[in-house]
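Final report, closing paragraph on structural work. Over the funding period we assembled a curated collection of sequence-structure pairs, and we close with a single example.
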Amino acid sequence: MSNIYETTIIVKPDLANDQMKNFNTSIDQFFSENNTNIGYKEDWGIKNLKSSIDKYNKGSFKFIRFQSTSDFPKKLDVFLKFNADCLRFLITKSNNSLEEITPQASKDN
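Its predicted structure, as stored:
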């Protein structure tokens, strides 16, 4: 049985364009290797953090909504924990449809 999940990832804001492309590629590759469907993806840009994380006061925010089996979020958790470019992340079960646009998409940084 598959469910819809969302993850918000905070990435180091000082990554070069090539490093950010590599990060995005590694995420996409991880999803495809695990036969997981990404339904919706957004890049929310660089935002200020309320409190610093590893001496970073800003972070680059990524949002992904995906459909997967219940064991995949645990695999994603392990994958993101050991990714050096990822500062923080949150994976939650979603009540939204797979392709629904987030309110954040229309906000300015």
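The radius of gyration is 14 Å. The chain has two helices and four strands. We thank the funder for supporting this effort.
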